[in-house]
Amino acid sequence: MSTVLYVAAKAPRPGRVKTRLAAAVGDAAATGLYGAFLRDLAVRFPQAA
User: Fold this and answer.
1) Whether pLDDT at 29 is above 80
2) CB-based contacts of 17: which residues, under 8 Å, 6+ apart?
3) pLDDT higher than threshold 90 for residue 47
4) Domain ranges of the chain
5) Four-residue CA torsion sign, 27, 28, 29, 33
6) DSSP letter for each residue of 16-28
7) Are the CB atoms for 5 and 48 separated by under 8 Å?
8) First CA to last CA distance, the chain
9) Per-residue pLDDT tens for 8-27?
10) Of 8, 21, 1, 15, which Cα lies nearest the Cα of 48?
11) Of 26, 37, 41, 47, which one's alpha carbon is 20 to 30 angstroms from that of 17?
């Protein structure tokens, strides 16, 4: 049996991701955090990237 990891993600574009967080910290910071989350996933699961 094999294990599959499927990650559905949006492109990290200001105003399009983490909109509720962006209301408090700004679009740039929220987009940066979202991008960091995606990079963290790629590091944690390199064979899936």
Assistant:
1) yes
2) 10, 30, 31, 34
3) no
4) 1-49
5) positive
6) TSSHHHHHHH-HH
7) yes
8) 20
9) 999 999 999 999 999 999 99
10) 8
11) 47
